[in-house]
Design brief:
This protein has about 190 residues and is of the alpha+beta class. The protein has helices at about 10-20, 25-30, 40-55, 85-90, 100-115, 130-150, 165-170; strands at about 60, 70-75, 120-125, 150-155, 170-180, 185-190. Strand 1 and strand 2 form a beta hairpin.
Length: about 190
């Protein structure tokens, strides 16, 4: 289900329900290494970013139970500072600027490897390993959107968990390397249309 025109109270509710389910997601472990404050960080991250993704005409997909969030965002649009609604909440986390480092890195890599003749959306899946059925329903929805709206679709991950299943969905690995000085392997996979 695609989220559009959410009110603040709906975003708050979604963030509160989803954050505990994805608190151990590798991207959040990178952005907020302190496990004691990570849940608050994830909630603040969602409350800060969901409205921005929607305003920028990115695609935000979730299942009916808010177990999974799939975001299709433009990698070329990134900021280097917190501003607007929710910025104060994000600034209280000393590691929060890691979000901009991650986005900047992603923007740079996609600039090098993605075709320039079409719009590009990068798919990030926020889910634990208990909800794979919901994940792949949303991946199918994302693939359908990429055909319907005519954009290239690239999957970005710091885990190897879904790579084989994504290959079965016709994604091919276009980039794979250790991410920064972490133990995570960043993989980018392009939908082979």
């Amino acid at each position: 289900m695609r989220l559009k025109d959410l009110k603040d109270k709906d975003i708050k509710k979604l963030s509160e329900i989803l954050a505990p389910k994805i608190v151990d997601h590798k991207i959040f472990k990178f952005m907020c290494p302190d496990g004691s404050e990570r849940l608050d960080f994830v909630e603040a991250y969602l409350r800060y970013n969901i409205p921005r993704w929607i305003e920028c005409h990115d695609y935000v997909l979730t299942d009916e139970n808010f177990d999974v969030l799939v975001v299709l965002a433009s990698p070329r649009r990134s900021s280097h500072k917190f501003s607007g609604k929710g910025a104060k909440r994000m600034k209280k986390f000393k590691s929060a600027p890691a979000m901009f480092y991650y986005r900047g890195n992603l923007s740079y890599i996609t600039h090098l490897i993605a075709p320039r003749n079409k719009r590009l959306k990068v798919m990030t899946i926020f889910a634990d390993n208990k909800h794979d059925d919901a994940v792949f329903e949303l991946v199918d929805e994302a693939i359908a959107l990429s055909y319907e709206r005519d954009f290239n679709l690239m999957y970005d991950t710091l885990t190897r968990r879904l790579i084989e299943q994504m290959k079965q969905k016709n994604f091919v690995v276009t980039y794979q390397k250790m991410f920064a000085s972490t133990g995570y392997v960043q993989t980018l996979m392009m939908l082979n249309k």
